[in-house]
Amino acid sequence: MFMSAPRGTRDILSPEVEKWHYLEDQIRKYCRLYAYSEIRPPIFEHTELFLRGVGETTDIVQKEMYSFQDRAERWLTLRPEATASTVRAYLENKLYAQPQPVKLYYMGPMFRYDRPQAGRYRQFYQFGVEVIGAGEPAADAEVILLAVHLFAHLGLKNLEVHLNSIGCPACRGAYRAKLLDYLSQHIEGLCRDCQARYQHNPLRVLDCKQEGCRGIAQGAPEFGAYLCAECKEHFAQVQAYLGDLGVKYQLNPSLVRGLDYYTKTVFEIISRELGAQGTICGGGRYDGLVEECGGQPTPGVGFALGMERLLLTLENSGIELPGLEPLDVFVASIGAGVQGPAFGILYELRRHSIRADKDYLGRSLKAQMKQAHRYGAPFVILVGEEELARDVVILREMATGKQAEVPLGEISQRILALMGGMEDER
């Protein structure tokens, strides 16, 4: 009996994988446009990095991490997110010695033991950006604009940008006291997890997805009334940057995000194409994370999005991404004695960047022509013994059925010329 993939994982095959290629190409294009360079951190890190960076009271650390001991009994964890890894790389590779800020992006698999559902897997792919070393509100606005710009290019509409500020350590203490006082009056209505969060990190209660906790959170005091003067000014400038550029947003006082490292600006971009859980992108500022990971106080801001959820949003919006490109040429061989020359023609076509393939199963000519049609090839090269004896092959145009003999040494040039003519007609 064959083995199946582990629950929460899947194989991504053609033609779907070509849509991934297109999306990844567009992401790289926009990251280059905004002057971000790529980072590829390790798939696994020391577990302590996520305990310190993500936060011991978060759901990710408490319930969702894939952690294990290696043969030297060191605790390692498959990365559940990449911001902590990027900050670790920033410190380890002394990127702080470069001109600041350092602007990085990443794409790759992350791992969380979560309940699999549409667009959400235990191995999932994430794209994110990080700006480390810039505390100005313009950096907050830029990462939001990058996401908005990319989504608009992909054709997404009906998106909502939700904004909030959760302050800094200087102003969070007063809010925490007020929130604890409020939650103490509703402790019995909280889920078991939030009753534990009440003691250790009450802000996490505001991020709970349980219906009862969400109802209680709606009546909680709003953070905005407790922001210090600096945080108020910072948040006002972020809004001004977005407003001046015509980016529509709405303030969401219940938005806190689910990770401990966030400070000041937090945001989510929401699509109504995914229903109630419509967040496709989220992020914010993390001015204390570099210091938490052993560096000097250094501001940072970024976002991350799940590639599967983005692809699902595009599908639900009726946006079709480019799939597998058809072949340019199919090489059909007539007779057992022409396989070698046919293979040589195939190689020569590919050397000229012409997408080409041939039959490898000894099919009849009729079956080979059907195969060429399935590939969508506009041209077929017929290689026969009689033609090879005269150093020619037959070139057939599939759309019209027209065919002509072409000298062996001119095949690639003739195909390229015909392909150029097709492009001109388009």
Primary descriptors:
Rossmann fold; 16 strands; BirA Bifunctional Protein, domain 2; 15 helices; alpha+beta; elongated; single chain; 426 residues
SSE layout and pairing:
Elements (H helix, E strand, L loop, with lengths): L15 H18 L3 E2 L5 E3 H7 L5 H6 L1 E4 L5 E4 L4 H10 L9 E10 L11 E10 L4 H18 L4 E7 L3 H16 L7 H9 L10 H8 L10 H16 L5 E2 L11 E9 L7 E7 L3 H4 L7 E7 H10 L12 E6 L4 H13 L4 E3 L6 H11 L3 E6 H5 L2 E6 L5 E5 L3 H15 L1
Parallel strand pairs: 1-5, 7-8, 12-13, 12-14
Antiparallel strand pairs: 2-4, 3-4, 5-6, 6-11, 7-9, 9-10, 10-11, 14-15, 15-16
User: Poorly predicted ranges (pLDDT <50, ≥5 residues)?
Assistant: none
Summed over residues and divided by their number, the pLDDT gives a mean of 92
Number of domains: 2
Helix fraction, binned, reads 25-40%
CA radius of gyration is 28 Å
Distance between the termini: 50 Å
User: And the CATH topology of the largest domain?
Assistant: BirA Bifunctional Protein, domain 2
Secondary structure: number of strands = 16
CATH H-level homologous superfamily name of the largest domain: Bira Bifunctional Protein, Domain 2
Read across the widest sheet, the strand sequence of neighbours is 1-5-6-11-10-9-7-8
Largest sheet: 8 strands, mixed
CATH top level of the largest domain is Alpha Beta
